[in-house]
Write a structure and sequence with these properties.
Length: 175
């Protein structure tokens, strides 16, 4: 997730205070990992330094004075370019799961046991996502679906790898 670009996108809707940006970010993008206030303000500082946002005059509010940030034409252009670019197609061909299986085989450890443990971990996480889908908002449900689909792909890979573990072990020993 690109925090600077997400904040720019939120600012393109309307000028906002840092507190409002954090709230909106956490609502739409921060499930399970809210954005720290310090990161909001340091990111806004860098965006202002780079000419992508402007900070208005300090305004009194509940607590310390607050600044309202607004996106500049340069910031708007960056959001336009970013939204037009496709996200890199995942997954990558090198994963931690695969690395652990191969190393377990190389080291004479229990690769099948590792795959069983990983399957159980994935299934537990899928149950958590199912609960989120039942009780969360639409954005929570859509993010949970995204996570579940990735976990389902991993589970299929785990099954295929377990079925081919003997052949993989023989190949690893030959190297």
């Amino acid at each position: 997730m690109s925090v600077p670009l997400a904040l720019l996108g939120l600012l393109e809707r309307e000028p906002s205070h840092g507190y409002d940006l954090k709230r909106d970010y956490d609502t739409f993008f921060g499930q399970g990992k809210p954005l720290p206030f310090g990161q909001v303000y340091s990111t806004l500082g860098r965006l202002a330094r780079d000419g992508k946002v402007t900070a208005g005059q300090s305004e009194p509010g509940d607590g310390p004075d607050r600044k309202r940030y607004a996106i500049t034409p340069l910031g708007t252009r960056e959001v336009e370019v970013w939204l037009a670019e496709p996200v890199a197609a995942e997954p990558y061909l090198q994963t931690v799961l695969f690395t652990k299986v191969v190393l377990a085989l190389m080291l004479g450890r229990d690769a099948a046991g590792y795959l069983d443990l990983q399957r159980a971990t994935h299934l537990r996480r899928m149950r958590e996502f199912t609960q989120i889908k039942r009780t969360g908002s639409l954005t929570d449900a859509l993010l949970a679906d995204h996570g579940m689909f990735h976990l389902e792909a991993d589970l299929r890979w785990i099954d295929v790898t377990q079925a081919r573990l003997g052949a993989l072990a023989a190949m690893v020993r030959e190297q």
